[in-house]
Automatic annotation (TrEMBL):
EC number from the UniProt entry: 6.1.1.20
Name under which the protein is recorded: Phenylalanine--tRNA ligase, mitochondrial
Species for this entry: Maudiozyma exigua (Yeast)
Name of the top EC class for this enzyme: ligase
Lineage summary: Eukaryota, Fungi, Dikarya, Ascomycota, Saccharomycotina
UniProt keyword terms in alphabetical order: Aminoacyl-tRNA synthetase, ATP-binding, Ligase, Mitochondrion, Nucleotide-binding, Protein biosynthesis, Transit peptide
Compartment(s): Mitochondrion matrix
Listed InterPro entries: aa-tRNA-synth_II, aa-tRNA-synth_II/BPL/LPL, Fdx_antiC-bd, Fdx_antiC-bd_sf, Phe-tRNA-synth_IIc_mito, Phenylalanyl-tRNA_Synthase
Recorded catalytic activity of this chain's protein: tRNA(Phe) + L-phenylalanine + ATP = L-phenylalanyl-tRNA(Phe) + AMP + diphosphate + H(+)
Described function: Is responsible for the charging of tRNA(Phe) with phenylalanine in mitochondrial translation.
Amino acid sequence: LFLRCESTKIEASIKINDKSYPRDPNYTNVTPSIIDHVNRSLHKKPNHPVNILRDLIEKKLNSVDNSFTTYNDFSPVVSTFENFDSLGFPADHPGRSKSDTYYINDKTLLRTHTSAHEMECYSKINSTGKPGFLISADVYRRDEIDRTHYPVFHQMEGCRVWKGRSIEQMKQDLNILQQHLDKHEMNLIVEDQSLNNKSPSENPKQQYMTDEEVSLVSQHLKRSLELVISEVFNQKIKSMKRENNTTQEIPNELKLRWVNAYFPWTAPSWEIEVWWNNDWLELCGCGITQQQVILNSGFEKDSTVSWAFGLGLDRIAMLLFEIPDIRLLWSKDERFISQFKDGEINTFKPYSRYPGSIRDVAFWLPGTTESEEIHENDLMEIVRDNAGPLVESVKLIDRFQNPKTGKKSLCYRINYQSMDRNITNEEVNEIQKNVENELVEKYDVTLR
Ligand code: FA5
Ligand code: MG
């Protein structure tokens, strides 16, 4: 008992990169295993797939007119103002909830997206001498556990500004971009579903902008992303041909689709999806930046228009390098990290997987009402905190309500498996026991 108390002793503050932040019992939900990821910086790690992809995109975008400053070193610790308020998130937006976000305390959190730095970078635009910027960074979200979800992943934010709103400048910039697209080797088929808007209120423009501006700026945004995606997938197709990999059919064209979207800080807003392996994959959210963000960054009213995008790097990297499990990106195993080289896309060669070990945990919830349920992300966090990189997936496999008592029972199946080594039965039993104990202690459940 004494040992257990010692090991769960709660410090009054949290240290991240030598800075201390006070805990808040009502907010703090960041755990040591999450804080361990803060300095891994896969997007800057030489010869790492996420770094290779970031570099490829930065180079392609700057090959057009060298208009983007790059920021790759921002700390993940940001204020709620930067992550949410500066962007116009309403007070009750679900993204703010403790079940989705890692809070350090009530005013400080681990950024959930690179948009948290838009305000700061917009405000530096004048001093950089470039009309755009790209921000790449690790982002943190409490989420489910499976092969495509990990609580830390990477995004690239891109923004491009027209100060003074010169229509001539916009036309000229769009022209240069179009020339680059025209001479690109990739055979692109683009369907823009957002152009079939039944009513403009579905995805409205901002009052202060003219229709012509909206048209030019949104074309510049869409063509920029189409160029980047063409480049990335062209590299992939070239590597498939070079490797003569017969497991996948080599496409001779690339299908993209634009759909309407909603973000609190852009209007209109879109998402772009790519057709790959017989499925549409969402790559990126984007839109025309709401004036409130630009005003928060110190620009004068009605002086400026801008576009913004936010692109997820990990899923694209998994697809390009054919990496089957997102946890591999975090592997320190030589057999993983020695396979990649800066500037090159190649297919990951799987090495033998270590055997997994399955355990079920079944329990009665303490009460019968909705409010006495456990949020699934809280359960995920307990498993993650105890198992670290040894958990492959957690799935609800059974849910049962006793018709007489109204009591609810849940059963979750946990697959323990390491990317890097064999794990023993004793080790798994120990972790499983700790998970069960923590569930009982924190949520007063009755194990079955
Ligand atoms: C955002 O995070 C917005 N900040 C994007 C944005 C920026 C919109 C600027 C408008 C203007 P979203 O939550 O959809 O949006 O995430 C953006 C991209 O990150 C997704 O398209 C996806 O590629 C990737 N992504 C999202 N969640 C995950 C996850 N759990 N694991 C891996 N990639 C993810
Ligand atoms: Mg989305």
